[in-house]
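Work package 3, deliverable 3.1, input record:
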Amino acid sequence: MDMVQTEKLVFEYEKRDEEGNVIGVSRAVDEVDIDVQEGQFIAILGHNGSGKSTLAKHINAILVPTQGTMWVNGRNTKDPEELWNVRQSAGMVFQNPDNQIIGTVVEEDVGFGPENLGVPTDEIWQRVEDSLRSVGMIEYRHHSPNKLSGGQKQRVAIAGVVAMEPKCIVLDEPTAMLDPVGRREVLKTVQKLREQKKVTVILITHYMEEVVDADKIYVMDHGHVVMEGTPREIFSRVDELKSYRLDVPQVTLLADELRKRGLKIPDGILKKEELVEALCQLN
Amino acid sequence: MVRDITIGQYYPAKSVVHRLDPRVKLVSTLLYLISLFLFRSISGYLVATIFLVTVIRISRVPFSFIVRGLKPVVLLLMITVLFNLFLTRSGDVLFHAWIITITEGGLVTAVYMAVRLIYLIIGSSLMTFTTTPNELTDGIEALLHPLNKIRVPVHEVAMMMSIALRFIPILLEETDKIMKAQIARGADFESGNIIQRAKSMIPILVPLFVSAFRRANDLAMAMEARCYRGGEGRTKMKPLHYKHRDYTAYAIVIIYVIAVFAIGRYLPLHIWIF
């Protein structure tokens, strides 16, 4: 079943001068077609200003397309009647962990979403406990979010989305403001959620290492989808990726350089183990 | 700075007072504050003191912690006392020199006023010591709920209060960061007179405001993304329910108010030292 589907999605915003007069129109997203199936792990890659975050905000109906259509779980995001259904089926985790935590206590923040949905009190408690457990933050339930590390805050934010029981979670550069430890924590949590809850995950990022496990990758540049395919397909096109100002994972880069020097190494190496294997089979 | 003020802080402890419904505490505090102005005799003060001391004892908030909360208002207290002392002219003159006259009435009023103010502050800070900010906002929201009928956005105000509470430490931290960044760029916040110092705050305030607005924008988006659409149709994770002890507390407070009123009015135990 289609979870998220777009058809020639265009988003334009008006550029204004200092007095507020429109001086031009800028296309942040230009005729994008993507198709995400239920249960998939999809990554959207792109450099700053490639339109990937703008696209992500469409999935949650924070923005609505200027032209074209976006369907989320079979619902058109342009339809005001469906707005809250769309937002409930596609939860969103943002970049800055501080600016998305509303509650002054961890468990109250996780309960915020279900409260808004009108879930009965007993069930809210159940959901809060479940989702805090699934992100491994249950022992912090009575803590103040201010005293948590970046990675922990982001896990709380994820729990807050999980408690709303969405079918799809959109993560808009969730690791961009974290240190390496926090980044690993968050990615592990996301992976665990995919395995346990079978949710569809759409990860927006510019870190290549985070997307090697994805089912499908879309690469965006200047509002267009310029590449799409499995990680193996995408990462075998090292030069093309570089032209979009994206770095490939170090292992892939090393393999690519070795191949250019004449070693017989297969295309699209994603993980250290694969490279080791390929090197061992050389003789 | 802001961190030193204990008024409005929460003191975690396990006591009956802590467990009471926030509505009970809000209403009781209000009643207690009103009750302080219902009498003018020593007997009334006696009852009010016994009540206050008992509640403090039950709440298990250390007395020293409460006294510390009085520090910021000492100046205000002194001014009130001095005004009452020198400007009230009634009863016998106790002391007269140059333009200073102290009358018996003045002295009594000054002492009474000081005690009243101290009790007022202790009473209200005892409420904040025993109630978490969240409970407090919930309590205020529930108590003001009837105002919804005359289109007062009660839920929105309560939501704003709790968000403000959440962001106070974040903005404090940010101020600290910006200050350090500006010091690193050669800014001087410590020398000069008061006007120069105020002016030197501008390089802190401008970035702070810009970042606060940006945060507000992000937060609003995050709230909408989590289906926030105002108070309507919203359920509560921690709804307020009166329990047996809450009714008992109400009864005790009402009995106290009647007692203080009756004793203060009809049993005027004037023990003048003078």
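Chain B touches chain A through 27 residues (CB under 8 Å).
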